[in-house]
Design a protein that fits this description.
34% of the residues lie in helices and 17% in strands. By secondary structure, the chain is an alpha/beta fold. It folds into two domains: 16-144, Chitobiase, domain 2 (2-Layer Sandwich); 150-514, TIM Barrel. An eight-stranded parallel beta sheet has the order 12-9-8-17-16-15-14-13. The longest helix is centred in the middle third of the chain and has 18 residues, at 333-350. The two termini are 49 Å apart. Bound molecules: acetamide and zinc ion (ZN). The site of zinc ion (ZN) has 8 residues, from helix 10.
Length: 522
């Protein structure tokens, strides 16, 4: 009998207390009592049509919600306030026995308050069919706001094409992780994926230069607008990346006249010296026309223009590139890339957009880039913190997203082209991520995680790479308090596995020691 009572008690505690919020909120204070949902949830919002309320109703289509005019009669209150300490994205979440109150300075803050509330619900309530009656939450008071304004997740849709539905699901998962920038890598040597009306061959030819079944395809302008609108509802900004002058073989197969020697090139998984010619004006006209359409599609504050891995063998031999170097008084072909980058950045600045480049643009001295260029520090494997140090020295904002340990396409154990040296687990991320700066310079804008799709990482292979490790990168982007020990953090991550299952996420192992022999990463 005693045993049965103990089990029942343990089970009821589990039902009320077991859920954790990730990323970890800044402060959580437990208070006395339990809140219990009833058949109907009375909601107070300041204005009808409130997006937070709409979002909640969409999450629980079978739950009865009643809008009430008087705060006192509400079980759930959304209110905007003026609070100095939580910024634009922070929120307060108070769960008291009679009422749940989410308050924030902005709609975005309210949205993150809802995300935290969702983390506290039993996972099975989140399958889109459930009602909440009888669900109990232990009372608490949370104050929370993010460490960084920039918390991105990059998806490589260049090397592999993913369907719009997959992209929307990716955005839902980002919202659950409180990430706020979808960095969309739309162009690669293996595929050009964005419809540009002025240059139809970019997609009629450039979207199917690679052979894989899931490497065919592009996003129409209508599809892109729909994805941008979907992201906006999740308080996610979509920042497109048009990677130039390198990683551009797909575009250059479509328009070979834009290469240095006006010759067709081939598509490759990695990268080649077949760049857009930096010497001829046609290149600049072409790219500016492309960027006009990009800006019409993406209202983002930033546009990413790539700039990584652009070997200069052709530029060193091309008469037009060499003539440009001479006429502009440039030092060499690296300086020509800076000139090229500066021209495009200035062009976008005039359209009120700021430009992000991969860190390669600050490896060499030369032409100064506009100060508002943001440097994305990525290549820790080869260049350690060179991009961070040089970017900050030159007064640029920096996004920290080093390939170790933020490239989640690198699996936990060897696979295909990835040897042991390219593998890492969630503990490596949590404890050794060079991008996780303890006292970041004020110029550090934030952190980024990437899912590259090199070597045919197709849609069905992504979950086991991304989850659960993305919880660790999300924690580093959001949580600015004292870090939990890894063991405590890992217990909390494991408490999210039922949620991942409800969301249909086919998560993989967290630790190298847990990877079964011959684990199938495919
Ligand atoms: C990169 O990984 N080439 C930015
Ligand atoms: Zn050239």
């Amino acid at each position: 009998m005693k045993l049965i009572v103990t089990i029942i008690l343990a089970f009821s505690c589990f039902a009320v207390f077991s859920q954790h919020i990730l990323p970890t909120p800044q402060t959580t204070v437990k208070v006395e009592g339990t809140f219990e949902f009833q058949n109907s949830v009375n909601v107070f919002v300041e204005e009808s049509g409130n997006p937070s309320f709409i979002y909640l109703k969409e999450k629980f289509p079978n739950q009865q919600f009643v809008s009430v005019q008087n705060k006192k009669n509400a079980n759930l209150v959304f209110e905007t306030i003026k609070a100095d300490n939580i910024g634009d994205e922070g929120y307060f979440l108070k769960i008291h026995s009679e009422q749940i109150v989410i308050s924030a300075n902005t709609e975005t803050g309210l949205f993150y308050g809802i995300q935290s509330l969702l983390h506290l619900l039993p996972a099975e309530k989140l399958d889109g069919h459930q009602q909440l009656a009888g669900t109990k939450l232990s009372c608490l008071e949370i104050e929370d706001s993010p460490k960084y304004a920039w918390r991105s997740f990059m998806l490589d849709s260049g090397r592999q094409y993913q369907t719009p539905d997959f992209i929307k699901q990716f955005l839902d998962r980002m919202a659950m992780l409180k990430m706020n920038v979808f960095h969309w890598h739309l162009t690669e040597g293996q595929g050009w994926r964005i419809e540009i009306k002025k240059y139809p061959k970019l997609t009629s030819i450039g979207s199917n230069v690679a052979k894989g079944k899931e490497q065919q395809g592009f996003y129409t302008q209508e599809e892109i607008k729909e994805i941008v609108a979907y992201a906006k509802k999740l308080h996610i900004e979509v920042v497109p990346e048009i990677d130039v002058p390198g990683h551009s073989e797909a575009a250059l197969i479509a328009y070979p006249e834009l290469t240095c020697f006006r010759k067709a090139t081939e598509t490759v998984m990695a990268f080649t010296p077949n760049l857009f010619c930096g010497g001829r004006e046609e290149t600049y006209t072409f790219l500016q026309n492309v960027l006009d359409e990009v800006c019409d599609l993406f209202p983002s504050e930033y546009i990413h223009l790539g700039g990584d891995e652009a070997p200069k063998a052709n530029w060193n031999k091309c008469p037009d590139c060499q003539a440009k170097i001479k006429s502009e008084g440039l030092k060499n072909s690296h300086d020509l890339q800076l000139y090229f980058s500066k021209r495009l950045a200035n062009y976008l600045n005039k359209k009120d957009r700021k430009v992000i480049f991969w860190g390669d643009v600050v490896y060499h001295d030369g032409t100064e880039l506009p100060e508002n260029v943001v440097v994305y520090w990525w290549n820790w494997r080869r260049h350690k913190d060179l991009a961070l140090v040089n970017g900050l020295k030159r007064g640029h904002q920096v996004i920290c997203g080093t390939n170790y340990y933020n490239y989640l396409n690198f699996p936990l154990s060897p696979w295909s082209k990835y040897a042991e040296s390219r593998t890492f687990d969630m503990q490596d991320i949590y404890e050794k991520n060079p991008s996780d700066l303890e006292n970041p310079d004020p110029l550090v804008l934030g952190m980024g995680t990437c899912l590259w799709t090199d070597w045919f990482v197709t849609e069905s292979m992504t979950d086991k790479r991304v989850f659960p490790r993305a919880f660790a990168t999300a924690e580093q982007m959001w949580h600015r308090g004292k870090r939990l020990t890894f063991d405590t953090f890992y217990i909390r991550v494991k408490s999210k596995y039922p949620l991942l299952k409800t969301m249909g996420i086919d998560y993989g192992p967290a630790l190298k020691s847990e990877v079964p022999e011959n684990y199938n990463w495919d």
